[in-house]
Amino acid sequence: MGRQGAATATSLTLCLMWLCCQCHSLPICEGVEDETPLHLLSTKTGYFNAHKDGSHWEKYTEAVHGCSAKQVWLLARHGTRFPTANDMGHLVKLLPPLSQRIRDNHRHDRGCLKEHDVSQLTDWFPPFELRDREQLQEMGHEEMASIGTHWREFLPDLFNVDFDPSLFKIDFTVKNRTEQSAYHFLRGMFGEDTVGNIELPKAYSPNFILRFYKACPRWLREVYKNNETTYKERWLFTETEHFKKMVHAVSARLGFMHPLSTDEMVAMYDECRYEAAWWPQRKSAWCSAFSHYDFEVMEYHQDLKYYYEDSFGHPLNPKTACQTLNDIRKLFQL
């Protein structure tokens, strides 16, 4: 190499070193939230995070003049849970090696993470075991108990009474997390002493009231297992400038010279929102590289899945709940 080539290489090296040393002050590091926007986590948003100030109940607590509640039909989702076995597999495969690479980047003064975020990622491993798959997480216990307490206080004439099996009908699916949710809901509504004496019914399948979609072969064939149409828009969104801009920004904040894969982005976002739901008082290091805009992009990526899989994105979806609505109609005619 000639003298001029050596000088150029030296200048380039110095330039790269200067960029690395200045990485924490680069514009890419701006806009990262000190607090995770806990309401932008799609279906993993915790109940307490979604409505932590309680203001959402105010408009429902005013008594309707001349009316009193006589009957309630409530369809509730289960509480915050652990990932599925499949999701656990993705998180275990992708995140531990990714955390090591992020640490290496930080060691070389690349990226925007703060020291306490990097320390969280040191020897990081998912905080769950395979036996936890799809089970209700401890936060889910408290969420459901709190919701049960709310309904007792909201409609005291109906619920501030002793449990009577002839007056209260309880149902849940064969998924253990829904039975656990029912138990803790009743714990919040009737108290610790009473709930132990309540005999829960045996779950059954197919359940056309609660899991109508999984009991519909046509829905399974045309919607759930139809990757070509149901999840097409979600995939196309990953090819847009909005998504690519987000991937490049998050990758750069983590110190990478190249964009991370969509699978890696989804794994980080998933772990971020699981941990945010389980432990809302502390920030997950996996949330640290996402700006408010990035969270909006990732939530929209999730929305595209659920819109076409469960909502009006497919004409069959609204029809699958007919038996559920018919059950409401029949019970309120009694």
TrEMBL record:
For whether the record's keyword set contains Signal, the answer is yes
Give the reaction(s) catalysed. 1D-myo-inositol 1,2,5,6-tetrakisphosphate + H2O = 1D-myo-inositol 1,2,6-trisphosphate + phosphate; (2R)-2,3-bisphosphoglycerate + H2O = (2R)-2-phosphoglycerate + phosphate; 1D-myo-inositol 1,2,4,5,6-pentakisphosphate + H2O = 1D-myo-inositol 1,2,5,6-tetrakisphosphate + phosphate; 1D-myo-inositol hexakisphosphate + H2O = 1D-myo-inositol 1,2,4,5,6-pentakisphosphate + phosphate
Q: Is Transmembrane helix among the key words of this record?
A: no
Where found in the cell?
A: Membrane
- Where do the TM regions start and end? none
Report the main location listed first in the record: membrane
**EC number(s) in its UniProt entry?**
3.1.3.62, 3.1.3.80
Which keywords are on file for this protein?
Answer: Hydrolase, Membrane, Signal
Q: What is any Pfam family matched here?
A: His_Phos_2
Per the record, what is one GO cellular component?
membrane
**Which GO MF terms are attached to this record?**
acid phosphatase activity; bisphosphoglycerate 3-phosphatase activity; inositol phosphate phosphatase activity
Please indicate which superkingdom the organism of origin belongs to. Answer: Eukaryota
Signal peptide annotation:
1-25
Q: Which family does it belong to?
A: Belongs to the histidine acid phosphatase family. MINPP1 subfamily.
List, alphabetically, the PANTHER family matched.
MULTIPLE INOSITOL POLYPHOSPHATE PHOSPHATASE 1, MULTIPLE INOSITOL POLYPHOSPHATE PHOSPHATASE-RELATED
Its name, as the record gives it, is Multiple inositol polyphosphate phosphatase 1
Species annotation: Scylla paramamosain
